[in-house]
Amino acid sequence: MSFQELIEKEREQRRTYILDAAEELFFAKGFSRVSMDEIAKKVGMNKATIYIYFEDKDSLFFGIILRKMRIYHRIFGNAASQEGTGRERIKKIGTAGFAFSLENRELFRLFGTAGPELFRDTDNPLAKVILEILMKELFIIRDVLNDGIADGSVRSDLDPREMAGYLMDSGRSITCMDPGRAALMEAEGIGYQQYVADYLRFIDSAIAYPEADRQSPVKKKRTVTRKTGKNP
Asked: What is the pTM of this model?
């Protein structure tokens, strides 16, 4: 290993160490209640050193989200590429996604509470990468729905781009659920895991090709030509 490679390795280790410390504090106290001074104290560095790696607290937030998003994107892609009808693959994507969210509840809670404000009108390069990943996932869902329309497992009377948006938006509202809302459901005897399982059943029925329509020719079929990574 060259001297330059050693320097880069040490730099990445420090960056990871700072992210780990910030993540622990954000999860415990919430993004808005944590200061850069507090993060610096936890990692045993001065703020000037932290700013070498992250230009501000927002960048720490985006860095924490991005490293998990990259893991999730691989899981998402693997689920989408499995064998099965379009409808079956959508269910596999949902199952894998919610399993990941259950393992990372604090991360998604952080995303849901601080994310909407931080992503608004930001030029942060890390935020842009996150949004690019989310768009890729939207297009993957759209393409799987198109496959489902083609194989007859997914309804054809709705635009697959719209359905992909519905799935992404509703799924995010559950994975990033406000703690107060989750507590209200728990008080009503509806646990989060039960809620997720029932949601997957609900969505599966919502995208299914209606049995009544199987008895007659499809009058309206809406598909979208694939353009990988681009909005048609």
From this structure: 0.85
